[in-house]
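Translate sequence into structure tokens.
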Amino acid sequence: MMSNRLSLFMSKRLLRFFLFVSVAFLLLFFLYFPDSETNSKTILSAPDYLSNDPDHLASFLKSPRLKEIHEENLEHLAQVEKLKQLKYQQELEQQHQMMEHEKYLQEQRKIHKDPIKEEEQNQEILRDLVNLQFSSNKDKKKNTNRQDSKNVNINSEKDDNKEDMDAMRELTPFTSIGKYNTDPKFNDTMEYIRQYSGKPGAKPRATFLTLLRNEDADDMVRTIMNFQRKFNDKFEYPWIFLNDEEFDTSVKEVLQKTAPSIKMIFGTIPKEHWSYPHWIDQDKAAQGRQKLTEMDVIYGDSESYRHMCRYQSGFFWRHELLDDYDWYWRVEPETNLHCEVSYDVFQWMQDNDKMYGFTLSIHEFEATVSSLWTSVKKFFRANPSYKNEYNLKKFISNDGGVTYNLCHFWSNFEVANLHLWRSPAYRHFFDFLDREGGFFYERWGDAPIHSIAASMFLPKEKIHHFKDIGYHHPPYNSCPIEDKIYKSNKCDCDQDKDFTFHDYACGQEFYAAQGIEKPINWRRNVGKW
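Result follows.
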């Protein structure tokens, strides 16, 4: 009897011990995953299944519910492991993305330190690729077609040009310019300009713009005084001065004192915009300077003049000081206005949807641009969509585009929309010409390049001749020859010295190309000097 009771007592003790160990194991197991929502629910529900009653515990341990809990825990462990693996993969991906982003930022920092370095590298790759295709095309033609027929040779050359320039059009990269769209498919120059320009009636975002050397400050003082008196005292547009060197403090002070009420901004031209690009052959450039010097061409031996022409052609509108402006009026030292300008020139241009305005036009020295038109034709053969249907080509060519007649707007006075130069068409045009090397191998000027671009990219009615503004840039004068305009604008120039329709000028070509009547007395100065 005693042994039976002892056995029963020991069995109960063992059962309680086993239950205690099991409960402790379960509690420790669930506490091992304190962040799990499922575990929390399981731990909270445990007292419903377990109690101090031995019979209840024994019944529970034999029930299917314990097996279900065990299976749930195994399933939960699998889910937790899966989540760990997923989190690990996400961390790896984030690290990879951060590394890629840092690499991108480093590349961007390099680009911003040298704004045109990437463009030059891309253009170098372009040139190599196009040269390879040039050679490939010519080799194919030589191997497959050795006929002596002149017509066949001509057609072969045309095919070569088409294939070569198609390749160039496909490969030429476009670079961004701040906030402005430079999508190469955005070929409609007028649409591009209107997208970014001010609307008619709105106050124009405009400025005067001058490239100025420190040593020319005295001449600039006289010019500022003249322009203020004749025009800007009434409208108070700001003035931006750019220099390839740092401006002397004394220069800034004397210019500001000349017109205290006018905002004057001084900037330095980046070195990479006023230096030789890496693709220029220095020996060939020196030979070009020597040739023009021997021909006694003005600025024939000047390197700085060539840098200036290249800068005015392709870089001034990229300067950050011009980013907030739509319009500029270019003014040079030692120039002056002959007449009162009583209306807001910028407002008139904006309200009348004009894009480029000038006073004087002239013929270029042929020796300075001997290969320019050949390069221009190559460009437009590759990019015919850039040509405006209603262009002013007749101003720059007397034979339908076969040759260049050397006419151009004298760009030392130009009132123009900056978005014309910012447009994809012009950027593409300049980049192509820049790689041709004519700025340094010859002496391509910014005036012919601006004039050709404006004449080809714009409808002709967007280009305006300011016949009412008297202007002087040594040695030529623009002076209204119509007496009514001369008197009403209080001009102080000699009408007999107006250069507009002189034989060496291009006024006759401009009026003919525009299809507008010349003044009644336009012949008064033809052939005078």
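Note: The chain is about 55% helix and 10% strand.
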